[in-house]
Amino acid sequence: MADTLIIDFLMIAGGLVFLYLGGEGLLKGSISLAIKFGLSKFIVSAIIIGFGTSLPELTVSVGAALKGSSDIALGNVVGSNIANIILILSIGILIFPLAMKVNAVKRDALVMVGASALLCVMAVTGTFTFILGAILFSALIAYIGVSYVMDKKQTASANQTEPSEEETAQILSPLLMTVYILFGLLFLVIGAKLMVDGSISLARDFGISEAIIGLTVVAVGTSLPELAATIVSAIKKQADMIIGNILGSNIFNILGILGITAMIKPISVDAHMLNFDVWFMLGVAIFLAALLWAKRPLLGRMTGSVMLLAYMTYVGFLYMGTPA
């Protein structure tokens, strides 16, 4: 028992180290990429960091679908999107309150709401078929293309194509930039796996039920890379990277992960998820979009505290089986 506990704690500690190093590396590489190619940090964080940190969700959803566990495949996407907004973002703004005025933020907030609404409409059919998956994935490709073109136009019109001396100092060589980004993503995935496996084992050692483990450790586990990237960005006061990471990850979870998974194997929709969880996900997406579209889009510590409380309440309702 003692040896098992030591191994569990070492896995959790190792996971934290990998998550920190991965978050640092990915952030540094992405900032360099944005400056070098004249892109905004927001669009790079939305596409590179947001999509990259969703790799654990992709692995879990595809693996679950292939094993016939449709509820896990869909629940992973829905649960991760809920956690990204009212858990991970809340932690980020508790560390560093945000005030976003970038047009791309408003645009991607609407895309996130649109993707969430599309998921709800498709869920009503009862099954995410190959055709529906292809529609979602095609929407992702279109989103990436439009975002890139619009971002290039905006940075050019704002005369931001020439980096300042301070920004030039942050530009890495192409090889080093690639190493930082790729190994950053790899370390995030490794760190998330170590944290999840160690935490599950530790919980079982102390006799915690499978239900509690599933609702807490596993549900949040695949979102640990987003959490690591958010915390590192918050500490370095990179507001655009924080929001870009959350919006990009949520968009990719629906259009990319759910789309790819449905094209590999149809996903049936659980009745409980259809009656409550997908609509709650849409609700929190609309809530975040409303905050970002407000005249003073300040996400302060009070908002963060309310969001964190909402997540804890949501998990409590799930555990008690309150939503019907």
The gist of it:
With 324 residues, this protein is an all-alpha fold. The chain is built from 13 helices and 4 strands.
Descriptive account of the structure:
The structure is a single chain. With 324 residues, the protein is mainly α. It has a single domain (2-320), classed as Up-down Bundle (A middle domain of Talin 1), CATH 1.20.1420.30. It is built from 13 helices and 4 strands. The chain has helices at 2-36, 41-52, 55-66, 70-95, 103-124, 130-157, 165-168, 174-205, 210-221, 224-235, 239-264, 271-293, 301-320, and strands at 98-99, 127-128, 267-268, 298-299. The strands form 2 sheets. Strands 1-4 form a two-stranded antiparallel sheet. Helix 3 (55-66) packs parallel to helix 11 (239-264) and helix 4 (70-95) runs parallel beside helix 10. The radius of gyration is 19 Å and the shape is globular.
Main traits of this protein?
mainly alpha; two-stranded antiparallel sheet; single chain; 4 strands; two-stranded antiparallel ribbon; 324 residues; A middle domain of Talin 1; globular
Q: Secondary-structure blueprint of this entry?
A:
Elements: H1 2-36, H2 41-52, H3 55-66, H4 70-95, E1 98-99, H5 103-124, E2 127-128, H6 130-157, H7 165-168, H8 174-205, H9 210-221, H10 224-235, H11 239-264, E3 267-268, H12 271-293, E4 298-299, H13 301-320
Antiparallel strand pairs: 1-4, 2-3
Helix pairs in contact: 1-2, 1-8, 1-10, 2-11, 3-4, 3-11, 4-10, 4-11, 4-12, 4-13, 5-6, 5-11, 5-12, 6-11, 8-9, 10-11
